[in-house]
Design goal:
Radius of gyration: 16 Å
Strand order of the largest sheet: 1-4-6-5
Strand content: 15-25%
Number of strands: 6
Number of helices: 6
Largest sheet: 4 strands, mixed
Helix content: 40-55%
Shape: globular
Order of helices and strands: EEEHEHEHEHHH
Structural class: alpha/beta
Length: 176
């Protein structure tokens, strides 16, 4: 199955280069890198994807202030968080068979707070790029219906995130 990912990388900042994140030696996470990562992740998650000719995902890198506003508005939690995911597959949008066969399937929005990601990267003692990949993979799983209401489902989701990061060459382990 051939997957095409159209990624809309939005950010709250004036200049994308000001939020370019380093992987290793000054290699920024560019939109092309994000697209490649999502492509690889969707290949791993193919069994969880509805059939479509291609997929669209919106990724927004933002601040604690903006994510707190969204968290308050949509989850009634007036505090910043690291990642929010708004799955479009949960909405009952009318779509004809013709539309489904010809148009990309919009999976939803992933919003990541750069401020919180930076703090968490320091706490976990890994790079900001690793933390952004971790949070974005978590958001993607939510878009595909994964959730973690209990400890067991959280552990399954975290293990799947490890698999997704390994696929793109980031090695991370879960500490007990």
């Amino acid at each position: 199955m051939s997957l095409q990912v159209e990624l809309y990388l939005e950010n709250y900042f004036d200049d994308f280069s000001s939020i370019a994140v380093n992987i290793g030696d000054n290699y920024p996470i560019l939109p092309e890198t994000w697209e490649n990562w999502f492509q690889q992740w969707l290949e791993v998650l193919e069994d969880y994807l509805p059939t479509a000719p291609s997929y669209e995902i919106s990724l927004r890198l933002t601040t604690d202030t903006e994510i707190q506003t969204l968290n308050s508005q949509y989850r009634q939690q007036d505090k910043p968080t690291d990642v929010l995911a708004f799955a479009s597959l949960e909405a009952d949008l009318p779509q004809s068979q013709e539309m489904l066969a010809s148009m990309p399937l919009y999976l939803g929005d992933i919003i990541v707070s750069m401020d919180t990601a930076q703090r968490q990267a320091q706490q976990q003692e890994h790079s900001l790029s690793t933390e952004l990949a971790w949070l974005t993979a978590h958001g993607l799983l939510h878009l595909l219906g994964w959730d973690h209401p209990q400890e067991e489902s959280l552990l399954q989701m975290l293990n799947q995130q490890v698999v997704l990061l390994k696929k793109i060459g980031i090695i991370i382990s879960l500490e007990s």
